[in-house]
Amino acid sequence: MGSQLLSTVERREFLPESYIRPESDRPRLAEVTTDSNVPLIDLASPDKQRVIAEIGLACRTYGFFQVINHGIEGKLLEKMMAVGLQFFRLPPEEKEKLYSDEPSKKIRLSTSFNVRKETVHNWRDYLRLHCHPLEEFLPECPSNPESFKEIVSEYCREVRQLGLRLLGTISLSLGLEEDYIEKALGEQEQHMAVNYYPQCPEPELTYGLPKHTDPNALTVLLQDPNVAGLQVLKDGGRWIAVDPQPNAFVINLGDQLQALSNGAYKSVWHRAVVNAAQERMSVASFLCPCNSAVISPAAGLVRDGDAPVYRSYTYEEYYSKFWSRNLDQEHCRELFRCAQQLQ
């Protein structure tokens, strides 16, 4: 099955038919624009109230933002990207040991998104790693390259602390107690997708990942510093490119924060595109509610007399629905709207 991996195949001259999107669902790269106002937030600013206000504005208007001076050393970011690339350049027989298309498997190497269900594939391979509690999953992590476990362990610990810190700031920006979101989500799981997007012979015809939102609470994304690929949907249906910034993370709000904020904050539609000139890497780290966490709008955010936008549900229920569908189907979040909101 590992032979399906794009990273084991020599560069192609033409895109295989199974990756070609219908004409109505192609990236139209020439129409993508840049936005000089993409929020870039300095977490080391001494003006904490300003940071809180900037994050709140970004969550309401963009659904994502970039952070700099976040406390994680640039050297570690470089090591994480380098060891990820080393992994995807391992011999096919080595990668074959980790290949699986079973979505529930905690540590696995796979391709596209959900190869069991989708009709058109995505131009991506990815290594999925569960990494909290780290000591539980570390023994199953790849031991080749030799430095992989050490680098990934340090990176996961640092990113988790950053993610929890950001959840506290987001809580404050909503007018809630700093620890409200963290408590509401329970003992959060954490997993990571190390994404590899090979050079693509016809990037206008396919995606690395099509339009989607993240089903979790918060995503901390490390972009390839040299190759752009992330694009975000702005109001009005305009796609904007999110160019990588040196030593920065992109922070995406997930579906659970949109529900918890009663729709005040946005879980943003985004996609990954590919290009013909260069391969691209990214490392997405996801903070997820514990399965038993009951997700519902914070009581302080539902106005007197107003109905909540979303009904209460467990994260396990939501995540099960998410993986039973394709990325390009009706949004999973719509299944959890209150009946009054559907009228």
TrEMBL record:
Quote any Pfam family the record assigns: DIOX_N
The answer to whether keyword Transmembrane helix applies is: no
Return the InterPro entries for the record.
DIOX_N (IPR026992), IPNS-like_FE2OG_OXY (IPR044861), IPNS-like_sf (IPR027443), Oxoglu/Fe-dep_dioxygenase_dom (IPR005123), Plant_2OG-oxidoreductases (IPR050295)
| Tree of life domain | Eukaryota
Keyword Translocase listed? The answer is: no
GO MF annotation terms: dioxygenase activity; metal ion binding
Required cofactors, per record?
A: L-ascorbate
Q: Name one GO biological process term.
A: defense response to oomycetes
Provide the Fe2OG dioxygenase domain boundaries.
188-289
Keyword set for this entry? Dioxygenase, Iron, Metal-binding, Oxidoreductase
Q: Which residues form a coiled coil?
A: none
Q: Family, per the entry?
A: Belongs to the iron/ascorbate-dependent oxidoreductase family.
The family database entries (PANTHER family) matched by this protein are listed as: OXOGLUTARATE/IRON-DEPENDENT DIOXYGENASE
Protein name per its UniProtKB record? Naringenin,2-oxoglutarate 3-dioxygenase-like
The species is Panicum miliaceum
